[in-house]
Amino acid sequence: MGPYFSLTAASLLLASGFAGVPSALEPAGEEAQQIAVLFWVMLSGGAVIWLGVVGLLLHSALFNRRVLNERSASRIILWGGVIFPSVTLCALLAYALWLMPGLRPFAQASSAGLRIEITGKQFWWEIVYHPSQGPPVASANEIRLPVGERVELTLKSADVIHSFWIPPLGGKMDMIPGRTNRLSLMATKPGVFRGPCAEYCGTSHALMAFSAVAMEPDKFRSWLAAQAIPAERAGAGGGALFLRHGCGSCHFVAGTDARGTIGPDLSHLGSRVTVGAGILPNTEDAIARFIARPERIKPGSSMPAFDMLPPDDIRAMAVWLRGLQ
Ligand code: CUA
């Protein structure tokens, strides 16, 4: 438990050092709030113990240098070295175990209705929303959540182990091939947060991220309803080039003949905060760069380069994709 928490603390402090990146120490969700409280309890407890030990050390080194008799020394070891650490560690363990059921409240999640299925792939995220009513809605590399409602997440992997984590909303959970893990989250404040992949999964592990958008419930519902229907411009200009150059054999775009399932669903790419799974701002330029040389932006990704296409074609496809709102 000790090394795990000190590592977590170190990574949390590092994460909070980056300006503008939401941190686990600025919780915007119920689970993250509880984890932050646990962190502060452990940090303050650790600080008090450290001060006590350093105080005793200074006291014995500077002010009280007499040699203790064997009886007093044994008593200090028994109380300070055995009883105190055992009691403190047991109390901390009991507190953490007491928190745990609250961090995994599945019963509440199922009754709330919305379930989001997330599958980790090298190096992106497949997302499927399963609302309580209506058909499933597919997306990629961005999850949206209604504020104040508990959402159930089912986490899977298609290749290697990835790990799902939205620091300001809750704890992390591994995505393991052949297994379905469940997590439930409740956002308490609207906002856009970055979710990194938290388990080394290959060359572009550090470039595997997603955006999590917590929205007011009615905005969320109208957004989800809009996602369920094909984007308006699905048949226009660059769309024909997209199909002609074979992009549709890997990517799905609702309302067109692009029906591939190997790569991310691009049906509403234009409405997402980022492209390339959390690494580039969603602009026509970024999309064009990704189409031309994906391996430069995301080494090890399965998408081949298309820089042999005329730049005008790439540009037209980028404009069309950006228009898929
Ligand atoms: Cu996926 Cu690291």
From TrEMBL:
Q: Which residues cross the membrane?
A: 35-64, 76-98
Question: Quick check: keyword Transmembrane in the entry?
Answer: yes
Catalytic reactions on record? 4 Fe(II)-[cytochrome c] + O2 + 8 H(+)(in) = 4 Fe(III)-[cytochrome c] + 2 H2O + 4 H(+)(out)
**A Pfam family recorded for this sequence:** COX2
Q: What is the protein's major site of localization?
A: membrane
Task: Pinpoint the Cytochrome oxidase subunit II copper A binding domain residues.
Answer: 111-226
**Superkingdom of source:** Bacteria
Keywords (alphabetical) are: Copper, Electron transport, Heme, Iron, Membrane, Metal-binding, Respiratory chain, Transmembrane, Transmembrane helix, Transport
Q: Does the keyword DNA damage apply?
A: no
Give the Cytochrome c domain ranges: 233-325
Classify the protein's membrane topology as the record does: Multi-pass membrane protein
List locations, semicolon-separated: Membrane
- Functional description taken from the UniProt entry: Subunits I and II form the functional core of the enzyme complex. Electrons originating in cytochrome c are transferred via heme a and Cu(A) to the binuclear center formed by heme a3 and Cu(B).
Q: Which PANTHER family match?
A: CYTOCHROME C OXIDASE SUBUNIT 2, CYTOCHROME C OXIDASE, SUBUNIT II
Q: Which family does it belong to?
A: Belongs to the cytochrome c oxidase subunit 2 family.
Name assigned to this protein: Cytochrome aa3 subunit 2
Write down the species: Mesorhizobium robiniae
